[in-house]
Amino acid sequence: MALRRDPTARQLRLATELRRLREAAGLTAREAAALLGVSAPQITHIESALAGVSEKRLRRLASHYVCTDEQHIEALVALATDRTRGWWEEYRGLLPTSFLDLSELEFHASYRWDVDFLHVPGLLQTEEYARALFARRVPELPKEELDLRVRHRMQRRVIIERTDPVPYTVLVHEAALRIRVGGREASRAQLARILELSEASHVTVRVIPFELDGFADITAAMVYAGGSVPKLDTVVRDGPHGALLIDSEAQLGVFRTLFRRVEDASLDPARSRDLIRRVAQEL
Q1: Which of 26, 73, 226, 231 has the fewest C-beta atoms under 10 angstroms from its C-beta?
Q2: Are 28 and 44 in contact, with CB atoms under 8 Å apart?
Q3: What is the pLDDT of residues 153-206, one digit of tens each?
Q4: Where are the beta strands (DSSP E) in the chain?
Q5: Three-point CA angle 76, 89, 1, nearest 5°
Q6: Where is pLDDT greater, at 244 or 268?
Q7: 281/83 Cα distance (integer angstroms)
Q8: 101-160 tens-digit pLDDT
Q9: What is the DSSP letter of 108?
Q10: Distance between CA atoms of 169 and 259, rounded to whole angstroms?
Q11: Per-residue pLDDT at 241
């Protein structure tokens, strides 16, 4: 079977989880291969996401690794047997892989948390706001790629607009609401869009006000995508060379704590809407 050339985010996560289980069991790749009756390179290919693994082999590996967490095993089986070709695949080869990885992660998420300080989070953005942001990129994007990025960002909103929407909580700093992106009218339209979405039962918008004292828990934007089980949660942070996916249990625990601290410090949804309305009037 030919090896994969461009594994998806979920394929990579399955590979990572299988390697972690093997290492936790104290087995080498060669020893795991012997237990499964395959060659050592096959285990390496599976753990590198260059090759898939059948449900039968995955369950055998879990047994050899003495994994007794049935929910975790079932979640891994779902990853291994998933054949979804999502809408984002039409952008493969046209946009950076990190754009597709985020789309895939959030599409399958059980819930989604966002924290942002300087910009309105992508899922809440209007087309005009998104276009103005991408247009400011250095070096400047060609018009064709600019259009692709805007269209992709608008399509990502499906997860909060579909009939089975993902529960979505946004913590956004007042600074992001006051920074004019695309001009006064575009900014007002963006705030109106946030207010509209905040009325949905599955969307919670909370504002971190300027007046908050001693706020220094997080200094960069964060996306937290809940997995089918907590062990499969993922944090997405912007890095110097694109999005950085974080999935170690220790780090996930840190980000959950940070999110809760910021959430506790932010205004409740009703007071947040009042602040958004005031900002819109003052623009």
Answers
A1: 26
A2: no
A3: 999 999 999 999 999 999 999 999 999 999 999 999 999 999 999 999 999 999
A4: 111-116, 168-173, 203-208, 222-226, 234-239, 242-246
A5: 60
A6: 268
A7: 48
A8: 999 999 999 999 999 999 999 999 999 999 999 999 889 999 999 999 999 999 999 999
A9: T
A10: 10
A11: 56
Question: Which two structure tokens, joined as six digits, stand for 1?
Answer: 């079977």
Token pair for residue 107? 């599409």
CA distance 130 to 109: 23
pLDDT-derived band at 240 (thresholds 50, 70, 90) equals low
The pLDDT assigned to 2 comes to 76
**Residues 206 and 171: beta-carbon distance below 8 Å:** yes
Calpha distance 57→48 (Å, rounded): 16
Please give the angle made by the CA atoms of 203, 235 and 46, to the nearest 5 degrees: 125
- How do strand 222-226 and strand 203-208 relate by DSSP bridges? unpaired
**Residue holding tokens 């089986």?**
77
R_g of the chain, CA atoms, integer Å: 21
In the chain, what is the straight-line distance between the N-terminal and C-terminal CA atoms, in Å? 59
CB 88 within 8 A of CB 101: no
Six-digit token string for 92:
């493969």
Query: What span, in angstroms and rounded, lies between the C-alpha atoms of 123 and 55?
Result: 34
DSSP string of 199-232, one letter each residue? TSTTEEEEEE-TT-TT--S--S-EEEEE-SSGGG
44, two tokens: 């390496």
Side chain identity at residue 105, one-letter code: L
Q: Is the dihedral of CA 154, 157, 158, 161 positive or negative?
A: negative
Q: 207 has which bridge partners?
A: 172
Residue 184: CB atoms within 10 A of its CB come to 9
CB-side exposure of 147: number of CA atoms within 13 Å?
A: 3
